[in-house]
Design goal:
This protein has about 675 residues and is an alpha+beta fold. The chain has helices spanning about 40-45, 55-65, 75-90, 135-145, 160-165, 170-175, 190-205, 210-225, 225-245, 295-310, 330-340, 355-395, 445-470, 505-515, 550-575, 590-600, 605-610, 610-615, 625-635, and strands at about 20-25, 30-35, 65-70, 100, 105-110, 115-120, 130, 255-265, 270-275, 280-290, 320, 345-350, 405-410, 415-425, 430, 435-440, 495-500, 525-530, 535. The chain is about 40% helix and about 15% strand. Strands 13, 14, 15, 16, 17, 18 and 19 form a seven-stranded mixed beta sheet that branches. It has a six-stranded mixed beta sheet with strand order 4-10-9-8-11-12. The longest helix is centred in the middle third of the chain and has 42 residues, at about 355-395.
Length: about 675
């Protein structure tokens, strides 16, 4: 715990002007980002008597080891820079809203030659029009199904589109009139683009003009006795009205507005947003956050506005934003919203009428969301805290291990030896900080030596980066200490506990590697699979945790995740070594019949010497297919077949596509689904 007076700036050093400041911990990680109209006055509040500070603020300033700031010319610039730095550094003490679920959007890919209507989740992409978010994906599909009758826009994937263009036959939607079939040239790219624009206009709330135009066309068709066309237009109008009925009118005068409500207690806050377009509720979303600092409702609203509109521009920012409390001061936030939209934005608290009534509805949703979140999280948070406390007590640690790193070695009978490193923080996975290693020095079934190499490589990097970190002269640090995304390299972050998959030998190897590097402030333990015993260095007997222990359960999760991650990487490397089978080049021959052929003949070599009549004896193989197989094998150069010589089975990677592309050791990679098969792999 640091003393704030040890890094307090000298009198007169802090400028009395707008700016953004950052607190860093002893490892140079940014732990808090803030903005101020006057940096001098704002930072002075942090360096007062600790007894006068809010408990959460006191924790932040005692965790920090330094403070730095950047001066800007206006408060609007400070607001934008604060948002950018929070997104970049992900500070642990800042308010970070988490979506209470993943919301789907209706997206129109206007950046493509033939725009496509589809359901999308996750980050928004440039050039794509989004509508929503919606509560359920099926609600989007129901709406789209109704609108495709009137706006037959493409909904198929790129693969289906290319296949239809190649064969000259549209998909089913093209035959039943729910797609204009641009894949086969029924409409041009310009005509299809115009259809997509009309679809977007209708979804954006400009419905009245289009409906009136259809009604006029229906009347004219009836007067000209084109009754079939009039009936079709009538059905189109009914479909559009049915789609509109799914979103009831809540505000008159075709209002475009976002309503934001906040429900909070001493520890957490929930935010609910209703998106109203054309007077109708077009989307709803919710966030929750831990209140890790003393913060007002107005400040919570300001952070919500930053997250909601930080990456939005134009019409995505409505003319009116209704909130329960205004940020202080409100002028910079309103100017920032106006800049994002490109025209005036009204940020205010509704006082009366329909808007206040709707705000009360949004507020009730926020209160319900907070209550539901607390119900779900209570047991989970308590369990994680208890697990960390049990581990600290069992291993005789000074404090709970908030960051745990686990290492595992994987190979196939001594070949393709690899290792994994997984990270858990506060009892939760941090997949962005996972690493994988290729064992370079040797090959073979020597897990102890492999473990020693991996621990040495990982913590040698930590010491090197820690040494260079102390020499940073500028506020960003040198480029060689950053990952590709611009954030500090994660190898500079030390864990409180290193867990290895194995017993006493592996633990001894890990401890020896740390001792050789002169690291004595990181605890080490190992979890042996056979009896789930916890081994610590220098002890003849293991630590036995009760089977019902939450601490043991957490260690098992960490160990199993490391094993899964290592074996997935090992399989990816192994799959690259196997050459494809000559049977892969036989047109129309699927995996089932390939397996049947190998099972019947035992190997590709014997299959190559078989006659057409002998091949026809295999179930499912006819004369034409047998002739094709013989011709393909005759053309293929004799080569070692991609079969298992022990079983005669075609060798394949059971996981299909690799979890990630293979990169350099220490590269951040994502984790996939749990792995179940073990076999001869380690």
């Amino acid at each position: 715990m640091a003393d704030p007076s040890s890094y307090r700036p000298k009198p007169g050093q802090i400028p009395d002007s707008p700016g953004v400041y950052r607190f860093r911990d002893e490892h140079r990680r940014v732990i808090y980002v803030g903005k101020a109209k006057s940096l001098r006055q704002r930072l002075a509040n942090y360096f007062q008597d600790l007894a006068n500070l809010h408990p959460r603020t006191r924790t932040m300033v005692t965790t920090a080891a330094s403070v730095e700031w950047t001066v800007v010319s206006t408060e609007v610039e400070a607001l934008q820079l604060e948002y950018s730095w929070i997104k970049e550094f992900d500070p642990r003490f800042n308010v970070k809203y988490r979506d209470d679920k993943s919301y789907p959007y209706l997206a129109v890919t206007m950046n493509e030659e033939f725009p496509r209507v589809q359901v999308m989740r996750g980050h928004k992409k440039k050039g794509v029009r989004y509508f929503g978010p919606y509560a359920h994906a099926w609600a989007i599909r129901d709406t789209v199904d109704l609108l495709l009758r009137v706006f037959p826009v493409r909904t198929c994937s790129a693969g289906v589109f290319k296949n239809a263009a190649r064969t000259g036959r549209p998909c089913l939607l093209g035959y039943i009139g729910k797609c204009s079939a641009p894949c086969v040239g029924r409409v041009s790219a310009e005509e299809h683009g115009a259809l997509a624009e009309e679809f977007c206009d209708f979804m954006a709330g400009r419905t009245g003009t289009y409906l009136r135009r259809l009604e006029k066309q229906m009347t004219e068709a009836a007067e000209e006795m084109e009754y079939e066309r009039a009936a079709r237009l009538r059905d189109d109008i009914e479909a559009l009205k049915k789609a509109m009925e799914k979103n009831a009118v809540v505000l008159a005068d075709a209002t475009d507005a976002d309503l934001i409500a906040v429900a909070e207690d001493e520890l957490e806050a929930a935010v609910q947003i209703f998106h109203v377009r054309g007077g109708r509720v077009r989307g709803q979303r919710g966030w929750v956050t831990d209140k890790v600092e003393e913060i007002t409702t107005g400040a919570l609203v300001e952070h919500a506005l930053q997250q909601l509109y930080g990456e939005e521009k134009g019409d995505a920012v409505p003319k009116e934003v209704l909130v329960p409390a205004l940020p202080e001061p409100v002028e910079p936030v309103q100017d920032w919203l106006t800049e994002r939209r490109g025209s005036g934005v009204s940020l205010r608290i509704p006082q009366r009428g329909d808007k206040k009534a709707l705000m009360e509805t949004v507020q009730r949703n926020a209160q319900q969301a907070l209550a539901l979140h607390k119900t779900k999280r209570a047991s989970d948070l308590t369990t994680r805290s208890r697990a960390l406390e049990e581990i600290a007590e069992a291993l005789d640690l000074d404090s709970a291990p908030l960051r745990i790193e686990c290492y595992d070695i994987s190979h196939l009978q001594g070949d393709d030896v690899v290792a994994s490193m997984v990270v858990f923080e506060d009892g939760l996975q941090r997949k962005s900080e996972y690493r994988r290693f290729q064992i370079k020095g040797f090959s073979g079934q020597d897990d102890v030596r492999s473990m020693h190499e991996v621990i040495t490589r990982r913590f040698r990097r930590y010491l090197a980066e820690k040494e260079r970190t102390g020499e940073w002269a500028d506020e960003e640090g040198p480029d060689d200490l950053k990952d590709d995304d611009g954030r500090p390299k994660r190898f500079a972050y030390p864990p409180q506990l290193v867990v290895v998959d194995g017993g006493r030998p592996q633990v001894a190897a890990a401890k020896k590697a740390l001792d050789e590097l002169g690291i004595d402030d990181i605890a080490v333990c190992g979890l042996a699979k056979r009896l789930e015993e916890v081994w610590v260095p220098g002890e003849d007997d293991p630590v036995v945790l009760p089977r019902t222990s939450e601490g043991l359960y957490l260690l098992q999760r960490v160990r199993d995740e490391a094993h899964r991650f290592a074996i997935t990487y090992q399989r990816t490397k192994r799959a690259k070594r196997f050459r494809s089978s000559p049977l892969d080049d036989v047109p129309g021959l699927g995996e089932t019949r390939k397996q049947a052929l190998i099972k019947h003949f035992g190997s590709v070599k014997k299959l190559r010497s078989a006659t057409i009549d002998q091949i026809r004896e295999v179930p499912g193989i006819g004369r034409k297919t047998a002739e094709t197989i013989v011709a393909a094998l005759a053309q293929a150069a004799p080569a070692a077949p991609a079969v298992n010589t022990a079983t005669g089975e075609i060798m394949e990677d059971e996981d299909g596509a690799p979890e990630t592309t293979a990169g350099s050791p220490g590269e951040p990679v994502s984790a996939g689904a749990p792995d179940e098969r073990r076999g001869q792999e380690r």
